[in-house]
Amino acid sequence: MKISRLIDTLEHIAPAHLAESWDNVGLIVGDRDRALEGPTLVTIDLTPEVVQEALDASCRVIVSYHPPIFQPLRRLNADSVRGRLLVRAIEAGMAVYSPHTALDAVVGGMADWLADGLHADGAGSGDRRALIPAPMRDPRQTHKIVTFVPAEHAERVRHALASAGAGRIGEYELCSFTIAGQGTFLGSEASNPSVGRRGALETVDEVRLEMVCPGSAIAILIETLRAFHPYEEPAFDVYELGPRPDRRVGSGRRVVLDQPATPEEIARRMRDYLGMERLRLAEASGGPVSHVGVCPGSGAELIDAAIENECTLFVTGEMKHHELLNAMDRGCSVILAGHTNTERGYLPRYVQRINELMPEAQAFVSKADKILWRHV
């Protein structure tokens, strides 16, 4: 069994295309074609202690939530702590995979786990949606090809286009739409019309035939259309289709509470849910709130989206001072729980999911991975 199978499982749980455009997710280090041997260690950060733990457990894969390579590298050597970690992993034949914001965005991922803590019982039935829905695109439906063809030839053209990749929606093929109309044309003396005469204005009963298609197939579809369409010069259009956002998937979450609660009440719930001694609360208002935004890690970039979604409380790991002031000036209270405090508690759920889908992974949560600071 190869590491590539584990990667397929990880990307089934959190598809890489859901990651933010600035992120670096996927296989960071290693050979996907190498044999998968030993257990899989799952951690928030790749640290010297975590790498040693992986070596001691004979792991060949580390799933590091935070990418150990984020900015482009000019060189890879042992002259820096990060470089030594990566060189050591490479020398040991280990692979390092990072899901990061893809795991935040997916249904049942890190953002949903964090949102569960808003409710008094750790779960709730209130409305929940992404603060910024992911621009979902089916690679088979990025474009639409439209042509105009005499009705008696429509079936032939439809099947030809389908054979070249058009008309695939979910588990269905040969998907199309037709509507009747009339087409007109006036051929020059150099034309060779298959219907009517050159030099005469012709009116022909036609159908408009539409089929979705992948952008990668447009060239072959045009060639196929020209080959199977009865006209010397077939009329056709190609449209690029916009994304179809899924409200359940994307950056952050907006939760409508079943029962409104004060920011302080919600802060206590989050403190207990995250297993913390204490967290920080900045109150713009002490009154009950019903709309709450959440974002694991560092969520300042989502504060505008949270406020646009009518949130009057925002829960995240960390924000800068001026970002906090900006939120409060706009009537939004903020709970700050610490960057990795809003992430690490999800790992047992993530490991359980990996092992359910692929028991051979033998995934386990790192014991060496820990919060970098403590209260004194």
Strand order of the largest sheet: 5-12-14-15-16-13
Uncertain ranges = none
Superfamily (CATH H level) name of the largest domain: NIF3 (NGG1p interacting factor 3)-like
Secondary-structure element series: HEEHEHEHHEEEHEEHEEEHEEHEHEHE
Task: Please give the structural blueprint.
Elements: H1 3-13, E1 26-29, E2 40-43, H2 48-56, E3 61-64, H3 81-91, E4 95-98, H4 100-105, H5 110-116, E5 128-129, E6 132-134, E7 143-150, H6 154-163, E8 177-186, E9 201-213, H7 218-228, E10 236-240, E11 246-251, E12 253-261, H8 263-274, E13 280-282, E14 289-298, H9 303-308, E15 313-318, H10 321-329, E16 333-336, H11 347-357, E17 363-365
Parallel strand pairs: 2-3, 2-17, 3-4, 14-15, 15-16
Antiparallel strand pairs: 1-4, 5-12, 6-11, 7-9, 7-10, 8-9, 12-14, 13-16
Report a brief summary of the structure.
The chain is of the alpha/beta class. Helix content is 27%, strand content 26%.
